[in-house]
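Chapter summary example.
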Amino acid sequence: APPAAAPAGGAAQPKIDPKQPVAFVNKRPITLGEAISLLARNQIPPGSEERAYDSVLDSLVNTHLLRQFLDEQAKITVSADELRRLEDEARASAERQNTSLEIYLANTATLIEDFREQMASEQKWRVYVTQRATDKELKDYVERNKDLLSGSRVRARHILLKLAPDASPEAKEAARQKLLGIRQEIVDKKISFADAANKYSEDDGNIEQPSGGDLGKFPRRGIFIEPFSKAAFALKKDELSDVVETEYGLHLINVTDRDEGQAIDIEKARAAILNQYAGDLQAEIVEQMRKTAEIELKPMPKDLFQTTPAQPAAAAPGTTKPATAPAP
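The structure predicted for these 328 residues follows.
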């Protein structure tokens, strides 16, 4: 548990400076208080503390990159009156839950200035998405993402030749030529795709329990990594892919069935479409910002975690995630 929890046995809690920098994004600090606030919202199994801390820092880097984009490139501003209104709503929301904003902030080890910055960022993001999400923009987005938004699913088989992350160009080319040779055998009907998968594929699951490389049915996102899923959904039923490269190695993909999903009514599904659009937009912005960002991460402070587990905190009063996207 993070230091928001009481130490076991009444032991003295280490002194922690919430304003201590734990990372810098383009020379601007991410504070320990911000990291503790996120850590305090989750149960963290023993032994996974450092992994949780690293994950929180990565998330905060994305948050700060997005904030910098909104401030410096999009130049979105929020008035002081609007921020006061949002804070008043947060306080009223807390009172309806028989608590107070101060108690919520204390329970999640959140500084009031960090909470206000979060509110401002959320509001700036809502403003930015509203500006971007014109009717034409959403229509074009739907056209580009029909498989995702309609709930389409495909069933596919694959053959994997593994490659180490640091594989040499020569090793990659050798694997590619081998896979192209397997592909030609399948095209020439010298072997079926399923038999080729059982014979050649280095997929651990298929080795343990041969299934002809069958992966079952899966949606456009959420099951397999993007390069693989994108290639699979680009195929028609019974079509065979070219060589597809992912972080795991090289693949051949064969789609054996397709469910095309439901027709998309933009007006009826506007809220869901807007939410998905905003999430993709946010990911795109952060990816672009990371390409040129100067990011410095510091090691996890010693004695950050205590032995007494903390309960996950409730959602921040008045700061539920906006319908348009995950909050910055």
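To summarize the output: DSSP finds twelve helices and seven strands in the chain.
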